[in-house]
Amino acid sequence: MYLKIIRLPRGPTLTFKIHNFALARDVVSSLKRQIVIEEAFKHSPLIVLNSFSGEGLHLKLMASMFQNMFPTINLTNVDLNSIRRCVLLSYNPSTKLIDFRHYNIKVAPVGVSKGVKKVVQGKIPNLAKCEDISEFFSKTAVMSESEAEEDPVNHVTIDQKMISRGNVENNKSSIRLSELGPRLTLQLIKIEDGLLDGEVLYHDLIHKTEEEKLEIQKKRESKKKLKEKRRKVQEDNTKAKELRKEEHKVKSLKGMRKVTESEVQMKKLSKEANIEVPVPDDDDKEYYREEVGEDPDEDLFSSKTNRKRLWKPQEENNQNSKKPRFFRKKNV
């Protein structure tokens, strides 16, 4: 399985091989405490890159591509309440593998007992086994194993007011991560200059000499020239076709106008004179001379006499339609 990351509209294109992966639902179901908050997905995550500062242009290009996948964060004006998720990308230079992880960020106060946390967070404490509320705080003053083993590296000083209760401004709080998934283990295979088709800038498996690179470049340039030539020919053909269509349209409109004008004139004449107007046939001999360029034989049009078609105007009150019809009775 392969994963392609492309920057639109001109590239580059990065091709990764997927060695291992795990779906988000499988990752969340494997945890004891499943913490999935819908409000965390309303803001973009914080991206953290590890070991991408080595030698090689492919590492710098990978780092810039991963950074540009997410919106940039201005550290001077950032709101800490909007940073609820984290994306970690760690590169191993010995194996050339990239580990992708996705976490949910939770900020908890430090040096506060469980009883105080419950009261601060608005939870109702269970005082059934206590005679006084002071006993509740004194019993729960002992820290749990997870809190005792917490690394002090995770402790930070918050400079802003947090929405979560218990985190006071300018006091220490601990950052806790819970994995959301998915998990991916990737390996960079190829970097192309264009959009899925271009000069290969880096290849992990195939290494070519400079002569082979020059030959590939020449072939690519010749292909581009051929493509441009064909495109120009196609554009010229489409333009010529459109011009022919327009000319044919103009000619057909002119012919239709001539026919309609002649018919109108003939109808007017017939109505005014109320006589039969002869409409002569087309002269076949003249038509033959124009098309063939020679005089026709005498026997060719001898059978056709000089007949004339008579065009009769249709009478408004047709008397034949008013004539009664008689039927004979059959003897049964």
Task: Please describe the structure with a list of short key phrases separated by commas or semicolons.
332 residues; alpha+beta; 2 domains; two-stranded antiparallel ribbon
Q: Can you put this structure into words, describing what you see?
A:
Residues 219-332 are annotated as: Disordered. Residues 1-197 form the Brix domain. InterPro entries: Brix, PPAN-like. It holds the Pfam family Brix. Residues 233-250, 258-274 have a biased composition (Basic and acidic residues). This protein is of the alpha+beta class and 332 residues long. The chain has two domains: 2-207, no CATH class; 208-296, no CATH class. It has seven helices and eleven strands. The chain has helices at 24-29, 57-68, 114-120, 133-139, 145-148, 210-273, 284-292; strands at 2-6, 13-22, 46-50, 85-92, 97-109, 155-157, 172-179, 183-192, 200-203, 277-280, 308-311. The strands form two sheets. Strands 1, 2, 3, 4, 5, 6, 7, 8 and 9 form a nine-stranded mixed beta sheet that branches. A hairpin with a 7-residue loop joins strand 8 and strand 9. The chain is elongated, with a radius of gyration of 45 Å. Residues 140-146, 304-313 and 315-323 have low confidence and may be disordered.
Structural class comes to: alpha+beta
Total of domains: 2
- N-to-C terminal Cα separation, in Å? 93 Å
Compute the average pLDDT.
Answer: 78
> How is the biggest beta sheet arranged?
9 strands, mixed
Biased composition (Basic residues): 220-232, 322-332
Biased composition (Basic and acidic residues): 233-250, 258-274
Domain Brix: 1-197
Pfam families: Brix
